[in-house]
Design goal:
The complex is a heterodimer of chains A (406) and B (410). Chain A is built from 18 helices and twelve strands. With 406 residues, chain A is an alpha/beta fold. Chain A has two domains: 267 residues, 3-Layer(aba) Sandwich (Rossmann fold), CATH 3.40.50.10540; 87 residues, formyl-coa transferase, domain 3 (2-Layer Sandwich). Chain A has a six-stranded parallel beta sheet with strand order 3-2-1-4-5-6, with helices on both faces. Chain B is α/β, with parallel strands linked by helices and 410 residues long. Chain B folds into two domains: 263 residues, Rossmann fold (3-Layer(aba) Sandwich); 101 residues. Chain B is built from 17 helices and 14 strands. In chain B, the strands form four sheets. In chain B, strands 3-2-1-4-5-6 form a six-stranded parallel beta sheet, sandwiched between helices. In chain B, helix 1 crosses helix 7. The longest helix of chain B has 24 residues. The chains are: A alpha/beta (406), B alpha/beta (410). Strand 6 of chain A pairs antiparallel with strand 14 of chain B.
């Protein structure tokens, strides 16, 4: 089948995680995604773990590589007017522009929506940053860790008697690209239907807060503050993560969730109806919540001697919601993720053969593909400028000699 | 007709894991019709309730995630209810659903039936593990899908079990994947004229939230050790969440050159309060690389920054962060979020009138567009609020609806 976005071009400014993950949705369905990068201010992920001995230097970042497969890289020095002029030509030729610089950066180069739209009335452009493009704190410079804290995720994650921890992976960096992909796709659909373009201002903090609307309403309606409660639930018990037998010297865990009284009866049966579990006091949610500490301790005595995958399979066979806690290595042996071909393999010039993941959507009539590794910095400068932009060879050579493609 | 999804009709059959998908599509302008059984969605019975009053129109979970939708009741397990649903599906663009794989088909509402009645229809399913595969039949919920995604293992303190966020983040992630899938399928339909099936798995949706760390495993060997309020960087672990006078703040020593000006500004800020040591002031920031620090160096820095934060409130530190470009943020609770001046200046919060129940303040649009086409469009529906209205659009009169009511079909 023809890829959905074959012939669609998206130009991407910025870097890190939040911007680049968003455009991958389109790249994995055939869009030409062109990253505008520079050696003077390299992408955050190209240098996050960079040391003087990193093989490949700026092209040797595994983190950059796994997030930016299927894209092209054009190196342009945006501190020079000639570099900005080329970036502008690229942006005006594109179907959409995505940027996640600090607010004001694009305007400094006259690459902001207000400037571009004068020459391209149906431009679709998304700008995403932590606090949005307006407001007194728009210039606040935080990264995803700060976004997660501001939006309220950290406060809700961890143990009630300890400091908050935040979900692993700075969650606004993974939620906001999903919002961005949705907004960009909707804007492209809208332009197809109406001919009109759009500018989108996505605040990563605001989008995160919209997800946590239940927490906000609990405050605005009832004056109550929801807080972290470990793995326990207000609506289910037991609901937790239990130590299983160690494997290869590693600690292993299994998650078990008992959602209602019927689930509890199934669990008790799967345990072999021990006397402690068969007590009528535990037959109701209220009773189980009252004795939740004891139930958790007893359950862990049972899980501790078995392998996590066996506990989960056994409980699932009995109709109880349970799953092994998988670490990042385990995911590569996970049969369900393998079935969905979640990870694909690409060949990278510096890193060799490595895995990259695609999104979690499977279509009956579209297939996400990973065809190319992440680009080396500026790898496709010539290809894009001569081939896609139609720049004359003479101009290209002159700009290259002048050091604009750095 | 100017909004992105104007004129797109979505029948939303979802239980809690799918509420968010329909909500964001409704915010984009789709006509989302929530279809509930006559007894109401179970989420309506889940506390906490607005004002503590147990009522199907006051569950905060229900109210939070079903905005921008109309609501009807329909008994899909009765022949007449099923027939009415298929009639609605003939005029709809999308069906969203969260039932276990195969369950919709067993009720005579599977893909073959829907596609035969309306070839343009898109059927989007959100399930714990997906529609096919060895675990397609597994039960799952937020805790267990996050457990199976790698993200849980890496979250929490090293001396305790892996821990989840106390609100179900997999539902938000999965709901957004579903919404993206629906819009992609709508774009594909523009080319082909045909609908298709969209299959979102919550487990798979929770792998990307580890931001590539899972994909990197064979290169890094990192299985995701839990470091609590810390973060691994180079050869060391460095604190990320710091106690302050009245709560916690997020602040990091790591990051590339983009962070260094913030660290310099932080030291200057501490120095103004007489709390920057000579050693701290003597750091050569030009050559600073957090990846090259030793643990004793990290610990010494941590003691100094930590001692300073303990003298300041979250609000004081955040004001300073905004004024001085420090990469520091308060660990906000809902209380600080509702009081935020930044959010107020952007008009983010909206007061939503609930007939007979009063006004309630909500987070508003998830993005600001040049044509204001993203918005919280209406409060979550009361049970059966739009049944007569939606059936009238099918051509049923008031008498027909009364008869259906008497037969307990609606």
């Amino acid at each position: 089948m023809r890829p959905l976005f074959a012939g669609t071009t998206i130009v991407e400014f910025g870097g890190g995680a939040a911007g680049p993950i968003a455009t991958r949705y389109f790249a994995d369905h055939g869009a030409t995604v062109i990253r505008v990068e520079s050696r003077r201010r390299p992408d955050f992920l190209r240098i996050l773990r960079l040391t003087p001995t990193t093989p490949g230097g700026l092209d040797g970042s595994a983190h950059f590589a796994v997030l930016n497969v299927n894209k092209l890289s054009v190196a342009l020095d945006l501190s020079r007017p000639e570099g900005v002029a080329v970036a502008r030509r690229l942006a005006l030729r594109a179907d959409a522009v995505a940027e996640n610089f600090a607010p004001g950066a694009m305007a400094k180069w006259n690459l902001d929506y207000g400037s571009l739209v004068r020459e391209r009335p149906d431009l679709v452009m998304i700008s995403t940053c932590l606090n949005g493009q307006t407001g007194p704190d728009r210039h606040y410079p935080g990264f995803g860790g700060q976004g997660s804290a501001l939006a309220g995720f950290n406060h809700l994650t961890g143990w009630p008697d300890r400091e908050p921890v935040g979900p692993f992976g700075t969650i606004t960096d993974s939620l906001s690209p999903r919002f961005a992909a949705l907004l960009l796709a909707a804007a492209l659909l809208r332009r197809r239907r109406t001919g009109e373009g759009q500018h989108i201002d996505l605040s990563q903090v605001e989008a995160g807060i919209v997800c946590l609307t239940e927490s906000i309403l609990t405050c605005t309606a009832n004056g109550e503050i929801l807080t972290r409660m470990g793995n326990r639930s207000r609506h289910a018990a037991p609901h937790g993560v239990f130590r299983a037998a160690d494997e290869d010297g590693r600690e292993c865990w299994v998650a078990i969730a008992v959602h209602d009284d019927e689930d509890w009866r199934r669990l008790v049966a799967a345990l072999g109806r021990p006397a402690w579990a068969a007590r009528p006091a535990l037959a109701t949610l209220a009773g189980r919540q009252q004795h939740v500490g004891e139930i958790e301790a007893r359950l862990e005595e049972w899980t501790r001697e078995q392998r996590a995958a066996e506990v989960a399979a056994r409980l699932q066979a009995a109709g109880v919601d349970a799953a092994p806690v998988e670490d990042f290595g385990d995911l590569h042996d996970d049969p369900q993720l393998a079935h969905r071909r979640h990870f694909r393999t690409v060949e990278h010039a510096v890193l060799g053969s490595h895995a990259a993941e695609t999104h979690a959507i499977r279509f009956s009539a579209l297939e996400p593909r990973i065809d190319a590794p992440a680009p080396r910095l500026g790898e496709q400068t010539e290809h894009v400028l001569l081939g896609l932009l139609g720049m004359e060879r003479e101009e290209f050579d002159r700009l290259r000699a002048a050091g604009v493609f750095e | 007709m100017s909004d992105a999804l104007s004129g797109i009709r979505i029948l939303d059959l979802t239980a809690e894991p799918g509420f968010f998908a329909g909500k964001v599509l409704g915010d984009l302008g789709a006509d989302v019709v929530k279809v509930e059984p006559p007894a109401g969605d179970p989420a309506r019975r889940r506390p906490p309730f607005w004002g503590g009053v147990a009522d199907p129109g006051r569950s905060l979970l229900w109210l939070a995630l079903n905005t921008s939708k109309r609501g009807i009741t329909l008994a899909l397990d009765r022949p007449r209810g099923r027939e009415l649903f298929l009639a609605l599906a003939e005029q709809a663009d999308v069906v969203l659903q969260t039932e276990p794989a195969g369950s919709l088909a067993a009720r005579g509402l599977g893909w073959e039936t829907l596609h035969a009645r309306n070839p343009r229809l898109i059927l989007c399913s959100i399930t714990p593990f997906g529609q096919t595969g060895p675990r397609a039949a597994w039960r799952g919920s937020d805790l267990t899908v996050v457990a199976a995604s790698g993200n849980l293992y890496a979250t929490g303190d090293p001396d305790r079990p892996p821990v989840r966020c106390s609100l179900p983040v997999s539902h938000y992630h999965g709901g957004l994947e579903a919404a993206v899938g629906v819009v992609f399928a709508l774009l594909a339909r523009e080319q082909t004229g045909e609908g298709q099936q969209v299959d979102v798995a919550l487990q798979a949706a929770m792998v990307m939230p580890s931001i590539g760390t899972a994909a990197m495993f064979r290169m890094t060997g990192q299985r995701g050790a839990r470091v609590g309020a810390f973060m691994s960087a180079g050869r060391t672990v460095q604190r990320e969440i710091w106690p302050c006078k009245d709560g916690f703040v997020s602040f990091a020593l790591r990051g590339g050159p983009a962070r260094v000006p913030g660290l310099i500004a932080m030291v200057a800020y501490m120095d103004e309060h007489g709390m920057a040591s000579e050693r701290l002031k003597a750091i050569d920031w030009k050559t600073y690389n957090h990846n090259l620090l030793t643990q004793p160096e990290v610990d010494a820095l941590t003691r100094e920054f930590g001692a300073f934060f303990a003298t300041k409130t979250m609000a004081e530190l955040y004001r300073a962060a905004c004024a001085r470009n420090l990469m520091l943020a308060p660990v906000n609770t809902a209380r600080e979020i509702v009081a935020s001046e930044q959010l107020a200046a952007r008009g983010f919060f909206v007061d939503v009138e609930h007939p007979g129940r009063g006004r309630l303040r909500y987070p508003g649009a998830f993005a600001v567009t040049s044509d204001a086409s993203v918005a919280l469009r209406r409060p979550a529906p009361r049970l059966g609020e739009h049944t007569a209205e939606v059936l009238a659009e099918l051509g049923l009169g008031a008498e027909d609806v009364e008869r259906l009511r008497a037969e307990a079909v609606v």
